[in-house]
Amino acid sequence: MKWVERRSFAAATLVAACAASPAGATMLVRAELEELVADNHTIVVGEVRDVRSYWNKDRTFILSDVRVAAREVVKGDPKEKEITVTLMGGTVGERTVLIVAGPELIPGRSYVLFLDRGNLPGAPAVRFLRDHAQGVFDVVGSGNDRRAVNQASRHPLVSDALGRTDAPGGPQGLPLEALIGSIQQIAARQAGRSGEVPR
Amino acid sequence: MKSRYSSRVLAVFLVTALAVASPAHAFRFLQNFNTGRVGDSPNVACTDPNGFTHWDIRAIDWFLNPQNKGAGMEQALADAMMSWWLVPDADHELWWRGHTNAGFATDGQNVFIWDSNDTCTGRCIATTFLELRTGQVIVEADIQFNNDKPWGTGPGDRDPQTIATHELGHTLGIGHTEVTSSPKPTMSDTYFGPDGRSLEADDRAALQCSESRYCKSFKLKGSGFRFGGVRVADITWNYLCMNVASVDVFRDGVKITTTPNDGVHRDVVGQGTAYVNYKVCKAGTTSCTNLLAVAFPPLVPSGQ
User: Does the beta-carbon distance from B42 to A91 stay under 8 Å?
Assistant: First the structure.
């Protein structure tokens, strides 16, 4: 009986730990969806295959390459089937570098990712999350009930010029297909404005 | 007999009053026992069975890279560090060590840096990393501020001291508090300008609790007062540090009770001398706190 109680306690502890609200220290200004679309050259819906963490060439930072199987490229090259996203942080051996309130990509889970190219410590011209947690939507639910919840909704955002602090979609998120539709419309509009051919 | 009964009633009353008066803390800590996590962190209570991030050294050296808008930020950063150093009963010492050329890198130096690069660009205002070794022990932390943002205390500016104080809290393992009422703690999850420079009770309690849990020694503190002429002593100890279910409380070398290890005991001593000595030990062991002399104010003769 005691063993059962202990197991229940352990399970409750684990659930509590998983359900606890994450903290944030990467301070981000709230962005409109239009801004996220404009500032990122690739937007993809995909599932994380695996994560490989390593020391950068200068051994000054731990980075993680996240391999994502693209289910749909909403903005960018539609032929891309697999995309590697580089994140700051990770664990190598007994050392961990933790970006407090950084984005979290877990193998087996699906996300909508807003990606740009940039230079991370010791890693030039990699695909990365310019907008940190605000550039990641968790895909939750299944079938037609799938929703996309911005990871920044777990974190405080600094208000934008209009005083808004809620991440796009808020803590409830948006229906995934509606989000994809909105991104496509925005991307087409922005491409039309700049004279590019939308893809 | 009557006096003994009265003392017991008084003791029960005092213990109940003490329990009711205990503050409800809502501070939280950054946890990262789950190896492989690259960002984010569960926000957990001080008593979480899996612990949380913390330092195992007392003195933490900080440097400023004075490039870009970091030039001239020395005072704001030193003041932010001082806020945490001055927390009562906190052992951490945040030392200002001057300038460095080091950047946002795991190089053994804890650095403040203002930079314009993809580590923190666009809508990012500031970011912090912790380097941890096994056991959630922090070995380094850097804070990068976005050089492209307006830094200062004017309208629309970001106050460097406020943000540094908040980020330093994170580098000490402290997460966002769940307190939302005013005055807002510095470790609130929202930026509210220069009011966030000074720590509130919840911020201080967070650091004290962290240091109690990840402590170097058992510490006993306390004070005495008189209630209707009766001597009463309140003693507290860093109970998380002791990590046992119950403790023995000794008064003047004699065990007076075995009590749950909740960090607090109120002893109704009765009449007697001007001071008594206490110590608290793990129940049934000789693993004890320091010896504490608790003094009581002199009796004021009636009619005066």
Answer: no
